[in-house]
Amino acid sequence: xMEIELFGLFMPQLLVLSILTFLPYWLSxxxxxxxxxxxxxxxxxxxxxxxxVVLLGFLNTLLSS
Length: 65
Prior knowledge:
Layout: E1 3-6, E2 9-12, H1 13-34, H2 44-64
Antiparallel strand pairs: 1-2
Helix pairs in contact: 1-2
């Protein structure tokens, strides 16, 4: 696992990626709410967690290549 140095502070790569994932997560969640997608979801909190994990994995794959 890599560490990223930010102003003399070493941070785990996963923490930085999680922070970067928040914006696409928030945007996609907002869009799904606007189009009424959540009325078809059985458990919205579980779906939101899975959405965040999928976006985090996608961003990790993009940036680690």
